[in-house]
Amino acid sequence: MSLEATVAAPFKRHATERLGEGEFVVALSLEREWFSPDQAKRLVDVAVGRGLVDEEDGELVARFDPDEVAVPEDFRPDEDVLREQSTFETALDAVVSAGVEKQRAVAGINERQRALAVTIEAAAVLYAKERGARVDHLVEDVRAELSGGE
């Protein structure tokens, strides 16, 4: 949730679902003083990778409703939000957010991996899709991995 709150903050402050990448970086680094400009740019990459925002014509477009995300007045993100999660971690988080208990999700993913003889990442994305979790942004990565391409 910390990543989502961090990403939502600039959109909420500007009351929009679209921001120029520069505006987003300035909001996080200069206005909020949460990150250096380089760290804020890194956060853009993480947010895109996690499917929270899309990049369209130099703008960042929220793929969620920023107004629905609570950003407490005294909120300050940890630097671990800058760590890019693996495909498995991202899919698992999506499943948990969709309401599946974490242990049950991990067990289900492991079962899919064994039954289908695929990578843990492919099993996680399949399991997440079966439960209606938003993981479409991960499908191409898994497809490329399964076909041996990058």
Features:
three-stranded antiparallel sheet, 150 residues, single chain, 3 strands, DUF2240, mainly alpha, 7% strand, 56% helix, DUF2240 family protein
Description:
The chain has 150 residues and is mainly alpha-helical. 56% of the residues lie in helices and 7% in strands. It has helices spanning 2-13, 21-31, 37-49, 87-97, 102-116, 120-130, 136-146, and strands at residues 18-20, 53-56, 59-62. The chain has a 3-stranded antiparallel sheet with strand order 1-3-2. Strand 2 and strand 3 form a beta hairpin. Helix 5 packs across helix 6. It is elongated, with a radius of gyration of 16 Å. The two termini are 29 Å apart. 29% of the residues are buried. The model has no long low-confidence stretch (mean pLDDT 89).
Write a brief caption for the model.
The protein contains seven helices and three strands, in the order αβααββαααα.
Shape descriptor reads elongated
Oligomer: single chain
What percentage of amino acids are in beta strands?
Answer: 5-15%
What is the helix/strand order? HEHHEEHHHH
Question: What is the helix tally?
Answer: 7
Strand order within the widest beta sheet: 1-3-2
Biggest sheet features: 3 strands, antiparallel
| Through-space gap between termini | 29 Å
How much helical structure, as a percent, in the residues? Answer: 55-70%
| Average of per-residue pLDDT values | 89
pLDDT < 50 runs, ≥5 residues: none
Helix and strand arrangement:
Elements: H1 2-13, E1 18-20, H2 21-31, H3 37-49, E2 53-56, E3 59-62, H4 87-97, H5 102-116, H6 120-130, H7 136-146
Antiparallel strand pairs: 1-3, 2-3
Helix pairs in contact: 1-2, 2-3, 4-6, 5-6, 6-7
